[in-house]
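Table S2 (text version). Query chain:
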Amino acid sequence: MSVENTLREKLNQQFKPSHLEVHNESHMHSVPANSETHFKVVVVAEAFAGQRAIARHQQIYALLAGELAGPIHALAIHTYTPEEWQQQAAAPDSPQCAGRR
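Corresponding structure-token output:
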């Protein structure tokens, strides 16, 4: 299974999100073609209600600890409750990598 699919599966199982985006952003970095090392996730879930951003991120880091210790070099995390997502409706764009080819 690809790293992207693994992330998608784990996040779906753990948080039951109403909206989930998993973006492989490796192509934006100085890595070999078809790499799966840099990701951005957007998770919209009722499970985040009443939690600060740091607590939300800690849950995702704990869930994806194996991937972060292995194939994933960088992970951008954007978490929202459904109400927050209605106001936001889009995650911020990722910055360009200074080492991009």
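Notes on Table S2: The beta strands are 19-24, 38-44, 74-80. Residues 3-15 form the longest helix (13 residues).
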